[in-house]
Specification:
Elements: H1 2-16, E1 26-27, H2 29-46, H3 56-69, E2 74-75, H4 76-87, H5 104-110, E3 118-123, E4 126-132, E5 144-148, E6 151-152, H6 153-160, H7 172-179, H8 193-201, E7 210-216, E8 222-228, H9 232-243, E9 253-259, E10 262-267, H10 279-292, E11 297-301, H11 310-317, E12 332-335, E13 348-349, E14 364-366, E15 372-374, H12 375-378, E16 395-400, H13 407-417, E17 422-425, E18 434-444, E19 451-460, E20 474-475, H14 480-484, H15 489-499
Parallel strand pairs: 10-11, 11-16, 16-17, 17-20
Antiparallel strand pairs: 1-2, 3-4, 4-5, 5-6, 5-7, 7-8, 9-10, 12-15, 12-19, 13-18, 14-15, 18-19
Helix pairs in contact: 11-13
Length: 502
């Protein structure tokens, strides 16, 4: 029943595009249906998560619906949207039309060159302004966006959520969080769901020069305003001028002494391959200083951190625990295939050609459900990671939110397993039943050139795990009130815990 309801919503939203101004080229049914066959074959043959939350019959039903939708010519933006909507039925946070990997022919045609001059955070289904980058003096942090160019925000959110990815069946908070446009999303090396899909669902906003806004002031009352759009470069320049240079790459790791006994260590991402410095030396110097100064409280803030390098995660955690880790609830690496069909090979790219090589069947055992596991891995010979000699010895807090969905989800899981300290904030993304990732194929559909990320490894955990992210020890959420006051409700809560000895 749930699947049928989702189809109905999807078809209604797709149908609504007919009323929009057509500014994109037309795509023919033969091309779409050929690519649909390739995409289905790739997901069924290669993806370890296709049948984790759906049966073969339900996946066939999903593709049958999309096959019917693609039986008539449609605009290029609508085809891109339908592809994104289809992929959400895999219930995998790493399976999507990756904005970073789209070729120029797609990004030039489908990525709007202008964007909304506001940053906002989704609080529930409300768009709450956090940063005003426009010339308007009316718009304040904490105000709620109600409509954009005459389109109710409710309709916008209902549309965008159909292309928003998450892990498992209970990922609505993560889907909503994906719609937020936060400061790191404004960096020109980043993309976000809202910038990409809002102008595709509602093409009158594509390359527009202004937005008519309807807002609700935090202190009450509705008002309207009109603001000029910004290019992505101008948005970043404006942010840097008004709020200070946005910290990216190694600069989004920062250490701040809140007082002599309490320090906040912020880790913006684990994309350490973009660093120019050696993060190993940086970490060692940090914890040497913390121990020398006998700091009693360390707050590790990973909010907004979507993930990156697992090795960097392990290096960080080796300074946060006094116990060997990684083997209390080890991850089991499961794959879906041993040999890639020749018919798919021409459409697959990756960074390591060994991913394409046939695997020795003598080294793998087949598991119920059709997965394969390396026999050496299944023997349970787990080698734990050792803590650093100068690991932190005081009280620890880990601040989390819904964007912690990959490497940072597993960091929170290790933190919980090791009883390293208290987790404060919001439920993470990811999934306690394990997430798909590790290795990827980049599937380029042959005629449209749309790229789809396909993870190859299911990092599975044994036992009866919940189909959710990781809940914090104490839940504290950002509110419109705290945004309006420019307060960090989560950090303030932790500091109060420390000050009152709780």
């Amino acid at each position: 029943m749930k699947t049928i309801k989702n189809f109905f919503v999807l078809l209604c939203l797709s149908g609504s595009l007919k009323a929009q101004t057509q500014t994109f080229k037309t795509v023919q049914p033969e091309m779409m249906q050929h690519e649909l066959q390739i995409l289905k074959a790739a997901l069924i043959t290669l993806h370890p998560g296709t049948y984790r939350y759906e049966t073969p019959a339900s996946i066939d039903s999903v593709f049958a619906v999309f096959d019917r939708r693609e039986a008539k010519p449609m605009s290029q933006n609508r085809y891109f949207i339908l592809t994104g909507q289809l992929l959400t039925h895999i219930h995998c946070g790493h399976t999507y039309t990756n904005y970073w990997n789209q070729p120029k022919v797609i990004s030039n045609a489908l990525f709007s060159k202008t964007c909304l001059p506001l940053l906002f955070r989704m609080i529930g289904r409300q768009m709450i302004i956090t940063d005003n980058l426009s010339d308007s003096k009316k718009i304040k942090p904490g105000d709620e966006l109600v409509a954009i160019n005459g389109i109710p925000v409710k309709r916008i959110v209902d549309s965008l959520i159909t292309v928003s990815q998450s892990d498992g069946l209970h990922g609505l908070p993560r889907k909503l969080d994906n719609i937020s446009v936060e400061p790191l999303d404004a960096d020109t090396s980043n993309y976000n769901l809202f910038d990409i899909y809002f102008p595709l669902f509602f093409p009158q906003n594509f390359d527009t020069d202004h937005y008519r806004l309807k807002l609700k002031a935090f202190n009450g009352g509705m008002y309207e305003d009109q603001v000029k759009s910004l290019s992505r470069t101008a948005r970043l320049t404006t942010y840097n001028r008004r709020f200070g240079v946005l910290p990216v790459h190694e600069k989004d790791w920062s250490l701040k002494f809140l007082n002599e006994q309490t320090v906040c260590f912020t880790i913006g991402d684990f994309e350490t391959w973009e660093w120019k410095a050696d993060y190993h030396k940086y970490l060692d110097s940090i914890f040497t200083v913390l121990n020398q100064k006998k700091v009693q409280n360390l707050i590790v803030d990973i909010r907004g951190n979507g993930g990156g390098d697992d090795a960097a995660r392990d290096e960080v955690f080796s300074y946060l625990t006094d116990k060997p880790f990684g083997c209390d609830d080890p991850m089991h690496r499961r794959i879906r295939f041993l040999v890639i069909p020749d018919t798919l090979l021409p459409y697959l790219k990756t960074w390591d050609k060994s991913f394409k090589e046939p695997k020795d069947p003598n080294r793998y055992k087949k598991l119920p459900g059709g997965w394969y596991e390396n026999k050496a891995d299944s023997l349970g010979a787990c080698v734990p990671v050792q803590p650093k000699p100068n690991h932190f010895q005081g009280r620890l807090f880990l601040l989390t939110d819904g964007r912690n969905s990959s490497t940072t989800f597993t960091l929170a899981k290790m933190f919980r397993m090791a009883h390293a300290g208290e987790i404060i904030g919001e439920t993470t993304g990811g999934n306690q039943q394990g997430i798909n990732g590790g290795q990827f194929f980049f599937l380029y559909l042959p005629e449209s050139k749309i790229e789809v990320d396909i993870p190859l490894i299911w990092g599975a955990y044994t036992g009866n795990k919940a189909d959710t992210g990781l809940q914090p020890d104490i839940a504290v959420s950002i509110t419109a009130a705290s945004v309006s006051r420019n307060d960090d409700a989560v950090l303030d809560f932790v500091l109060n815990q420390i000050a009152t000895g709780k």
